[in-house]
Amino acid sequence: METQVLQEVAPLGEQDFLYVADRHKQSFDYPIHCHDVMELNFIAGGAGARRIVGDSSEMIGDLDLVLITSSNLEHVWEQHQCKSTDIHEITVQFYIPFEKQEMPFRTNPYKSIYKMMQRAKRGLAFPMEASLTVYHLLKKLSRNNSSFHAAQLFFEVLYELSLFTEARELSTSSFAKVDISSESRRVLKVKEFISHHYKEEIRLEELSELVGMTPSAFSRFFKLSTGKNLSEYIVDVRLGNATRKLVDTTDAISEICYTCGFNTLSNFNRLFRKRKGCNPTEFRERYQKTKVLI
Q: Among 12, 25, 46, 179, which residue has the least CB neighbours within 10 Å?
């Protein structure tokens, strides 16, 4: 029987906007899971714990703050090397239909929040300064008994976080099953082509011709638009699909390697270790250990 990720049932009713849990605990013991609602999770005193969001796996410091707006992105905080017995966790689960771009997201005051929510579909990790900025607001939110004022306060939290543009996206888009989006039609066209042809050899000349640019101009344009070199982006797409296959199938690693566009198994293993910090076998074993049967 294939192991599945725990589907958590969030304690939000049809008329509820958000749920806040403010608690102190001695360890991380909840299994990897996903849920239909969005989540902002703050952790203090958890240094050494391992945070898994999609195909991202990182050891956290004393403060950790992550926003997840994708309804079915797997995530978990594991004990790993955490020695603390006083872990403070504030979890806010909520639902905002931001993708429809209904009011208020069509107006200027909320544009930064909308952009942040889009990025957070892959999981978004904030710098320590962001945690320190919103901590008192989260504490105030956890003690607020007025649903109206709580909603206003939470939007203040989201706005403050949206100003931290250096927040890092965690999971790859292909693993998180996030639709490709971009403000540039040319970049969108290229990303769509790569998502359909990542298993094949993709040449720079082919992509530059696709958008009517010279190869050198296209290379500069793509780097400025995405923050990544073309080759780096293609590797990320291939690795994202490979990690998804490692989790969801029992296919041999060599088969996954070649069906995801890598030419040699040694190159696949090298790139995988460089990006994920472990080899494909270790990743599969680690991920499976965090799952539970449902």
A: 179
